[in-house]
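Why run this: before we spend reagent on co-expression, it is cheaper to look at a predicted model of the complex and decide which construct boundaries make sense. The entries below are exactly what would go into the expression plan.
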Amino acid sequence: MHTERATPASGGGRRLCAGLALLAWATWVHGQQLPAQLTLSIPGDPRTTMAIAWTTPRAAPGILSYWREGEPARQSSATSQPLVHSGTRHTVVLRDLAPGSTYHYRIDASEAIFRTAPADASAAVTFVAMGDSRQDVGETDLERWAQVAGAAAQESFDVTLFSGDMVLAGFVPRWWDMWFAAGAPLLAKAPFMAAMGNHEMASPAFQRRMPTPGDATWYSFDYGPVHVSVVNTDPSLPVTISPGQFPAPLGPGSAQYSWLEADLSAVPGHMWKVVMLHRLPYSAAEHGDQQDVQALVPLFDSHHVDMVVSGHDHGYQRFLPMAAGAVVPAGTWGTTYVVAAGAGAPLYDVNSADPRLASAAKAFNYVLIHADSTCMTIEAKDAMTGQILDQAVVGVAPQPRPNDLPACATTGG
Ligand SMILES: [Fe+2]
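The model came back. Tokens follow.
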């Protein structure tokens, strides 16, 4: 896999400059030339909507044509806005699409595809989950993020779930340029849905480049048999990594607590419930349990959230099913907490002796989540070697529950 975006050229004649500029503002993915910073995201109902965004060096109109096979092409004009010093961002939101369909689209000379979510809520779907791609202090590239994104992009999946800390500091535009370039194969392959982390520093930079449902930093969507709720654990400044000093208002009465309570209450009983957030209620690594985030645990318990996917503590951890802050007895219902925080940030040691842990690895990783109407399973992979780190059945069959373990095998058979 080869992905690159050259830096803008300077000097030379007009024709040479024009040629170099064209090369500078293209992304190469698997030998295919695509617009720079091309990204897919879900701005609403994933069965019928898709957002496509890209960046050009100049403020030219952004035009996208799209079609389903056998149907005539339609054209849509982008909403365009200047970025701080990296060109113009174009965003097209397509609506009234057909569910479960493959669409082709063309931007200038580039052509690619996307797929809408299935109409059938019992259809099998796959997510790839990961988080923490940020560079370390003093690093000037995102090479490890490029490697993880490139490896994950080789997998077959429908949506990326990214649990935050994309860049070292969210208010630095250049780092976003680097991040979008390094993650190109993943960002262009399938809708990329993110939670905000503490390193985004409440900057609106990410939302300026990628639409989310309601343009919010906490939101939810249904995809096949899975309801995904995304929480923003770090919605405001100042940001500090000192325990107990995060300003995130997540307890009862807070905006997000009330929203999540209503959101989870409305999920039909036959759907899996997955919550994604950045900072984590439980961890056996560097940062440890985050007490302010534990304010949400009563909601996870009372609404039988099947899995909580988080980032922040760089590496991989899966906890034994838990309820009310403790591991539940075998055979009883509990939420599975997974830390998938290995998308490139420097790795932390994990205390594998923590009795709450079912599996842990100090490894760059991503996690495949497979779900259909009866089973949800996860498969964690080392992003650098392809080695399978962990496999597990998550949650219980949606009906009946609790205390009814699923009759399904892990994805490895
Ligand atoms: Fe973090």
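The domain at 125-393 is CATH 3.60.21.10 (Purple Acid Phosphatase; chain A, domain 2). The first strand starts at residue 26 and ends at 29. Bring this page to Monday's planning discussion.
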